[in-house]
Design a protein that fits this description.
nucleotide-binding; six-stranded mixed β-sheet; ABC_transporter-like_CS; binds adenosine-5'-triphosphate; ABC transporter ATP-binding protein; about 325 residues; transport; ATP-binding; disordered C terminus
């Protein structure tokens, strides 16, 4: 990748006590993209973010941001990176406005009330500017976290599970906020458990498990490459064997011959074409069916397969 905005090489982290949370992570992030890091609990997502944002001291490897070594130019580079953590740990007694304004100052920027006002308005927090953070609802507290991270106008923004535990409406609202930030030129890396979130938002997806990146790809390419079509064809009468005419297709008999199961395709429409041909072949052979149930695999299916190690990583491992 040419001039990645973030370039992580061979990053390792073994916590005192011996647990290896990151086992050699290589990851390059493009300027201007939304990158979703997907992984099960304990995969190392928060540790990875923490290593870039200075909350976790890596055991090994290098991190370059904006083309420079973070190990050497820590303060100046960190000021250009924003972090929305999972939870607010401080500032509970501060009013919203002061807390957000203070965050800007932490990165050495001069006060800019107009900018803070614009941020609070964009997050529908302006009405709450004088309210103590502890008195806000959970969703509003999350917005405050975003406002604090935006306060120093970072070029690279990490969001650690931005929508965990928020309702559907607020989640959609936050997705909109994140998209708007990207439109303004911010590069965004988010971690999530919600596949829907990655599917909806991300340009590229990285899948992490047990401290290793299993795969990184354009979301669409990943779905195309690993996507599958599954069709269940209910037969009018059970069959003892797969009919000869279907020999060329990835089909099998299940449920004691009462259903034909097709599993194949390439996530780009081939599966549906195959299924149409299979049904035509059945009709030509005089085999009646009563129902067809077609399911296209989603990013979720792909993710579950990958994380559980079911899907062969053939050709796909990054
Ligand atoms: N301070 C710490 N000391 C020791 N072990 C830790 C520490 N922080 C995290 N770990 C361990 O490192 C591993 C990775 O944790 P991490 O929080 O990075 O995962 P995650 O992918 O963010 O998980 P989740 O989705 O649950 O937030 C886990 O096994 C965790 O228990």
């Amino acid at each position: 990748m040419l001039d990645p905005i973030l370039d992580i090489r061979g990053l390792t982290k073994t916590y005192p006590g011996g647990l290896t949370a990151l086992g050699g992570v290589d990851l390059q992030i493009r300027k201007g993209e939304i990158f979703a890091l997907l992984g099960p609990n304990g995969a190392g997502k928060t540790t990875l973010i923490g290593a870039v944002c200075g909350l976790v001291r890596p055991t090994g490897g290098t991190i370059h941001a904006f083309g420079e070594d973070m190990g050497k130019h820590w303060r100046t580079l960190r000021a250009r990176i924003g972090l929305v953590p999972q939870e607010l740990s401080t500032d509970m007694f501060e009013p919203v406005w002061r807390s957000v304004s203070h965050s800007r100052g932490l990165f050495g920027l001069p006060p800019d009330p107009a900018r803070i006002e614009a941020i609070l308005k964009s997050l529908s927090l302006w009405d709450k500017r004088n309210v103590q953070i502890r008195a806000l609802s959970g969703g509003m507290k999350r917005r405050v976290l975003i406002a604090k991270a935006m306060s120093h106008d970072p070029e690279l923004l990490f969001l650690d599970e931005p929508t965990a535990g928020v309702d559907v409406e607020l989640r959609r609202d936050m997705w909109k906020q994140i998209s708007e930030m990207r439109e303004r030129g911010t590069t965004i890396i988010l971690t999530t458990h919600y596949i829907e979130e990655a599917e909806e938002m991300a340009d590229r997806v990285g899948i992490i498990r047990a401290g290793k990146i299993l795969m990184v790809d354009e979301k669409d390419a990943m779905m195309k490459r690993l996507g599958r079509t599954e069709a269940l064809i209910s037969l009018a009468a059970p069959l003892a064997a797969v009919p000869e005419v279907l020999a060329a297709y990835p089909v099998a008999l299940i449920e004691e011959g009462r259903k034909l199961c097709y599993r194949g395709g390439d996530g780009a429409g081939q599966g549906k074409t195959d299924v149409a041909e299979v049904t035509k072949a059945l009709t030509r052979a005089g085999i009646d069916y009563t129902a067809i149930d077609i399911h296209e695999s989603s990013l979720e299916d792909i993710f579950v397969d990958l994380v559980e190690g079911r899907e062969a990583l053939a050709g796909g491992a990054a």
